[in-house]
């Protein structure tokens, strides 16, 4: 075969490899290349194009340029702005650079034309290879996604194997070295094999890329999916008009927030939560929680307050008008108001109204609120065991709500109400924290201007609240709380007091509640006393009030049924309404007796007389105690017994009585269990009377604790006990000397009837109670 050499201008290409049959345009900017191009145009419009080894080399020399390249026909030249020329070329044949003829002003080279072999048989040789290549190329086109599908059709029409290999090579996205390698395959079969190998490799890579791509895409997809769903939800809500609702709701809240006079921190929090609500969507569970919280914020009286009535005279009038008696409480409130008027400050101890049930603690507190012109809220602490009940649960709890203090403030509707903490002595504690600790903070005027509820997470100012507490007895009030309180005792009422309360307050109140005019039902005074003495037994007037209500209802029914205009309630009516007397009181014996002493007891229901009996019988010194006696009372009996043994001579008792006699003390049960040390003196008196066979005066009652040395110690509930003695018709009452100061509190009606004897030791008691004592 003749070898064909040609002399042509050379243009080195950067990053491009051009194959025969390939049509391509590229820009030429280097001066040397432009000159080469111009030369080519002047001659046969052919140029030898070959790649430079490194695309970045600016001025390539011989060694920087590949030797194998392609002779191309120049099809078109286009001048671009700024000395650049765009050239359109078509590859013609491979050629190998043999010699540089000149290098300046442009490369001129001698190349050997490398035509494909002539004796290659298209039909036989490498058919299998070609098929495999076509199949692979199909797949490659699919996978790569950036080769037009028509290419495949074009390729089908090519039956020249060499040309096919070159055309495919020109489509492949390969690195330059790889392309150069393909270009340097002069043998058709070798070229085909290489193309197939490259194709297979590329397909693998593309598949791998796709796999990775899918994974990455999956990840991105999830985010996109969520976004998409959310957008869809929005669209659905919009369709359903919910979005509108939502917007309206936002607007409503916003309005409310700006109208409510909230402190800055509270307002910021409210707006923050509103913003959260906007993003959560109002139909989600979270939305519900936020909404409830916002409602709480908006309903609390952060800045609303009532104006105090500082008119002392009108306050006094209100207090007097609404309650009978209770002088101490009323005086203390007037004092409090006066101080406030002078100093404009409300600091000071918390008032604690202490007394048995039904004596009007709650209702006087209500009256105080009325007199002060403050709103009133009441919260019972009975049975509160958990700190969270006072201070609330954190919002993260399901169904969390604020504690009772904040709840009460919401009910109060002003930030300066009168807040009644009822039954503070009935609070207890367990593992969930001590509610008393939380209450301490509430009641402490130094701290309570920033009370923080767990649910609200905002400071609430309680410093303007007037707290009043109530208790039945002070013994059970937690000590630190007790230290902050000023106790005002509200003791039980005498029958006379109850009578007044009943006639002047309870009856008019009940008549009014039942819509009856004053003169339509008239309850006689003796009926009122009957109800007080024989149908109720209590320190307060709660049952009495219920009885009155019942009397009035029955009377109304009678008026209706029998068409009467008026009903008079008399003793017989009371009996017909309620049956026989329910409670009777011990009346004193008519005569003095041995071993029978009238003691006095004080229970939650008020005072009562307590007859104590003792008897001595031959035996060997046993002391028997019967009746419903508590442990303290039993011990007290034993102490008295020992005292008598030690001082037998003094009282005309045989000194070895404890060897010869058994003693039995009995306290008749009565309705209520009794306990406490205050029956001590009565039991000693009964025992001495029984042992010495001297009678006890029947008109004397006594109370007092006894010690082993015979001293008489003070007792509680003097007023109630005195009332009981008075009711029973006693005329002399022996009380411990240390209780003298309490006599002041005894109503005059009682004091005038009773002769009080003060005893500091048992001798005084015996002198005054045992007849013919000497
Ligand atoms: P407490 O709180 O001490 O248990 P309440 O305040 O519930 O007692 O009183 C029971 C009822 O007795 C109320 O209707 C109250 O108005 C009435 N009451 C009690 N004491 C008086 C009083 N001194 N004057 C008028 N009403 C009274």
From TrEMBL:
Residue span(s) of domain Lon N-terminal: 8-203
Protein location: Cytoplasm
Classification via SMART domains: AAA, LON
Top-rank EC class of the record's enzyme: hydrolase
UniProt catalytic activity: Hydrolysis of proteins in presence of ATP
Induction trigger: By heat shock.
Entry-linked PROSITE patterns: LON_N, LON_PROTEOLYTIC, LON_SER
Location of the Lon proteolytic domain: 591-772
GO molecular function: ATP binding; ATP hydrolysis activity; ATP-dependent peptidase activity; sequence-specific DNA binding; serine-type endopeptidase activity
Stated family: Belongs to the peptidase S16 family.
Oligomer and partners: Homohexamer. Organized in a ring with a central cavity.
NCBIfam families from the UniProt entry: lon (TIGR00763), PRK10787.1 (NF008053)
Name of the molecule in the record: Lon protease
Organism per entry: Clostridium kluyveri (strain ATCC 8527 / DSM 555 / NBRC 12016 / NCIMB 10680 / K1)
């Amino acid at each position: 075969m003749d070898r064909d050499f040609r002399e042509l201008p050379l243009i080195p290409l950067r990053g491009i490899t051009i194959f025969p049959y390939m049509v391509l345009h590229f820009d030429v900017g280097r001066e040397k290349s432009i000159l080469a191009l111009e030369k080519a145009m002047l001659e046969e419009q052919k140029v030898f194009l070959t790649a430079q080894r490194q695309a970045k080399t600016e001025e390539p020399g011989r060694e920087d340029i590949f030797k194998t390249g392609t002779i191309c026909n120049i099809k078109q030249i286009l001048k671009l702005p700024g000395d650049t020329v765009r050239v359109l070329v078509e590859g013609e044949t491979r050629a190998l650079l043999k010699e540089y003829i000149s290098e300046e002003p442009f490369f001129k080279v001698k190349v050997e034309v490398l035509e494909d072999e002539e004796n290659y048989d298209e039909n036989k040789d490498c058919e299998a290879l070609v098929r495999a290549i076509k199949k692979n190329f199909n797949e490659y086109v699919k996978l790569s996604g950036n080769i037009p599908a028509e290419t495949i059709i074009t390729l089908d029409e090519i039956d020249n194997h060499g040309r096919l290999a070159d055309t495919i090579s020109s489509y492949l996205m390969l690195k330059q070295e790889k392309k150069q390698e393909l270009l340097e395959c002069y043998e058709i079969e070798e070229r085909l094999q290489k193309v197939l190998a490259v194709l297979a490799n590329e397909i693998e890579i593309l598949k791998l890329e796709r796999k990775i791509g899918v994974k990455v895409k999956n990840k991105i997809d999830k985010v996109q999916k969520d976004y998409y769903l959310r957008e869809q939800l929005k669209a659905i809500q919009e369709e359903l008009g919910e979005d509108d609702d939502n917007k309206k709701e936002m607007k409503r809240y916003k309005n409310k927030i700006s109208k409510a006079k909230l402190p800055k921190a509270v307002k910021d929090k409210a707006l923050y939560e509103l913003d959260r609500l906007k993003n959560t969507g109002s139909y989600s569970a979270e939305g519900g929680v936020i909404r409830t919280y916002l409602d709480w914020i908006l309903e609390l009286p952060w800045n609303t307050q009532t104006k105090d009535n500082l008119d002392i005279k009108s306050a006094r009038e209100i207090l007097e008008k609404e309650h009978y008696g209770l002088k101490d409480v009323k005086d203390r409130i007037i004092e409090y108001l006066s101080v406030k008027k002078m100093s404009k400050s409300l600091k000071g101890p918390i008032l604690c109204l202490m007394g048995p049930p039904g004596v009007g603690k709650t209702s006087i507190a209500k009256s105080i609120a009325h007199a002060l012109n403050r709103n009133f809220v009441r919260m019972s602490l009975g049975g509160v065991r958990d700190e969270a009940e006072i201070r609330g649960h954190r919002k993260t709890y399901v169904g969390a709500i604020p504690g009772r203090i904040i709840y009460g403030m919401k009910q109060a509707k002003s930030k300066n109400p009168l807040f009644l903490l009822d039954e503070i002595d009935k609070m207890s504690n367990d593992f969930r924290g001590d509610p008393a600790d939380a209450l301490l903070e509430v009641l402490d005027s130094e701290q309570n201007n920033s009370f923080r509820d767990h649910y609200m997470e905002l400071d609430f100012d309680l410093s303007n609240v007037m707290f009043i507490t109530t208790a039945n007895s002070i013994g059970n009030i937690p000590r630190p709380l007790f230290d902050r309180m000023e106790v005002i005792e509200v003791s039980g009422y005498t029958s006379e007091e109850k009578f007044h309360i009943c006639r002047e307050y309870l009856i008019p109140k009940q008549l009014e509640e039942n819509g009856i005019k004053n003169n339509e039902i008239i309850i006689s005074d003796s009926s009122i006393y009957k109800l007080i003495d024989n149908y109720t037994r209590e320190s307060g007037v709660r049952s009495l009030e219920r009885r009155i209500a019942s009397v009035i209802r029955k009377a109304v029914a009678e008026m209706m049924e029998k068409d009467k205009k008026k009903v008079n309630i008399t003793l017989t009516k009371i009996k017909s309404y309620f049956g026989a007397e329910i409670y009777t009181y011990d009346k004193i014996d008519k005569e003095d007796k041995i071993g029978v002493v009238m003691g006095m007891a004080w229970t939650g229901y008020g005072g009562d007389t307590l007859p104590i009996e003792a008897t001595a019988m031959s035996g060997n010194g046993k002391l028997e105690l019967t009746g419903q006696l508590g442990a303290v009372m039993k011990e007290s009996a034993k102490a008295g017994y020992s005292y008598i043994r030690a001082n037998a001579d003094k009282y005309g008792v045989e000194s070895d009585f404890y060897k010869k006699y058994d003693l039995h003390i009995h306290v008749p049960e009565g309705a209520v269990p009794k306990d406490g040390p205050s029956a001590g003196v009565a039991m000693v008196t009964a025992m001495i009377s029984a042992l010495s066979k001297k009678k006890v005066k029947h008109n004397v009652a006594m109370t007092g604790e006894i010690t082993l040395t015979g001293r008489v110690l003070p007792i509680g509930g003097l007023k109630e006990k005195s009332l009981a003695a008075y009711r029973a018709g006693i005329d002399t009452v022996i009380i411990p000397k240390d209780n003298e100061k309490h006599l002041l509190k005894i109503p005059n009606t009682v004091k005038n009837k009773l002769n009080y004897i003060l005893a500091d030791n048992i001798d005084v008691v015996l002198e005054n109670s045992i007849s013919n004592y000497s």
